[in-house]
Design a protein that fits this description.
This protein is α+β, with helices and mostly antiparallel strands. The protein has two domains: 143 residues, Nuclear Transport Factor 2, Chain: A; 41 residues, no CATH class. β4 and β5 form a beta hairpin. α1 runs antiparallel to α2. The protein is rod-shaped.
Length: 249
Amino acid sequence: MNQMLKRASSVCAAAVCAASLTFSGAAVVMAGSEIDEAINTQIVMTAEGLTNEIVTLGEDEIKAYLESGDEFTVGAMTAWDDARNDVGEFVEAGSAEVEFSNRQYTATVPVDFEKLDAEFVYVFEETDGMVTPASVAVNVQYPLSTTMKNAALNTIMGLGTVFVILILLIFVISMFKFIPGSSAGKKEKKETAPAPIPVPAAAPVQETVDVSDDNELVAVIAAAIAAAEGTSTDGFVVRSIRKIKRPRR
């Protein structure tokens, strides 16, 4: 069996060992947050063994495990593949520390690398007396300067996204006036339409007619006025008549 198969077999054996952790209820004895020594030892060995195998995997081996279909294995390979370019070459792995909370065991393994240090964090779940690995994460220990830089970039990106969306909204709203039948277009047209200028009523045109030579017309008009006033024609004299021309409607 060549070296590659030996390493693959070792990783598979460690994963099977971690997945098949089973302890009876009588064997698990805890006081408060203290962890049973047998469980603690088994979790430490599993976490440290998996870490030492993962950090030494090659490119082809990582791709093969990513295609394995096992949820835990795929998650571990994905976490390591995302972080390995940032941390550099493997230097040394430390001792695992185990904590228990909410029926879960968390094992943290510190690892030193050439560029940046990292922590492999394994989560083991306890169900019906069984402790099984559920997930693994690789937390790269970035320096404060890098963390602040990333935070500033995230802030700038967030603000830029907000302003871009606002500009797009303003542009879309401004285009409503060009949409036929939109209320914005009707409102603008209604506001910009000039008010009609009121046309003053034309004053009646008066025309003065000299009727001094038309005795018959004067007599008729005088008789009509006298009849309307209830008097005789002796009380007034008609000297002129004005004809009023009213505008046609």
